[in-house]
Amino acid sequence: MAMKFCDLSASFTGLTLGFWLFNSLLTLPAVAGRYVLNQTPQTIARYFGRYNSKQINGEQVTYTYAPQSFRRLFPQFPKSNFSITFVNNQAKYINLNFNGDFFQYPGDYNYDKAQASKFYNYIFGYQPPIWRELSSKFGGNETVYLYEYCLGDGVATSFMRYGYKQFTDSATLSYNSRCEPSDN
Length: 184
Known about the structure:
By secondary structure, this protein is an alpha+beta fold. The chain contains 4 helices and 8 strands; from the N terminus they run ααββαββαββββ. The chain has an 8-stranded antiparallel β-sheet with strand order 1-2-3-4-8-7-6-5.
């Protein structure tokens, strides 16, 4: 009887280990997104393809990209593109450029949480974990406001709204330590 118990115990242990191994092979890995900030132009080219234009200003180099897949994010602004500014060969700022005719746009607030989430998701490969206001400033003119929101994982978006429809012609994603996850 003791021999049968050993055989049963060994079989159970073997089946359990086999199940865990088989289950781990079928489980898809979590997608962590892609690293963009502080990366080189060569790494960025692997993510988004070749740049359309390059502008050099001292230590800063700005590459502009306009892949078809990006233009589909903002169909009301078909000339949209994004640019990445590198300082000392590291990506520091990612700019969304709507390049739109806002008088043709029927709505208002063309950049808000939904559009910021689309932009972040396209650039980093996953949805932003939060949307928290960092600052809101009156720009001196009664229709100009400056905003900065935390999107999480060390990334903030900053943009300006102006005009009676409060349009945004560009927005920036950049590193901000206030947007790092807390260690609670």
